[in-house]
Amino acid sequence: MGPPNPESIQLIFKRTHHPIFGLFQKGSPRYNQTMLNPIAALLIEVLEIYKWVVIAAVIVSWLTAFNVINQHNNFVRSLLRILFTLTEPVFRPIRKIIPPMGGLDLSPIIVFVIIWFLQYSIQWASFRYGL
């Protein structure tokens, strides 16, 4: 009896049903992960960009609250107006449900959770159903 040949080792691994060996089989959620539906990829990227808009709005609101930036500057005023226009329609319904508590606005955190859930759901549906 000599050393095992590569074909017998592959046969042993094919017959073993360990979870790690099934990760890259057809039907597995991780199968062909690089090929995401273009529409799903676009939606995920738009949500990712909106996440950065929310981060910028939070930082700018802190800077204006502590008088670090001058609101009378034309560039700053236009930046504030753009960020307000992009984020306020999303923040307003959340603020109606959960008002700011002690000066702490939780709406950006809720928006982050919603964005994460949407990104994960879009990716899951794309991989699961090929959407």
What does this structure look like?
The chain is mainly alpha-helical. The protein has one domain (33-129). The chain is built from four helices and no strands. Helix 2 (38-65) packs antiparallel against helix 4 and helix 3 crosses helix 4 (107-129). It is elongated. The termini are far apart.
List the helices and strands and how they pair.
Elements: H1 6-15, H2 38-65, H3 74-97, H4 107-129
Helix pairs in contact: 2-3, 2-4, 3-4
Helix content: 55-70%
Class per helix and strand makeup: mainly alpha
Count of beta strands? 0
Regions with pLDDT < 50 over 5+ consecutive residues? none
Cα separation of the termini? 52 Å
Number of helices: 4
Number of domains: 1
- Mean pLDDT score: 82
Quick take:
The chain is mainly alpha-helical. It is 65% helix and 0% strand. It starts with 5 loop residues before the first helix and ends with a helix.
Keywords:
131 residues, 0% strand, mainly alpha
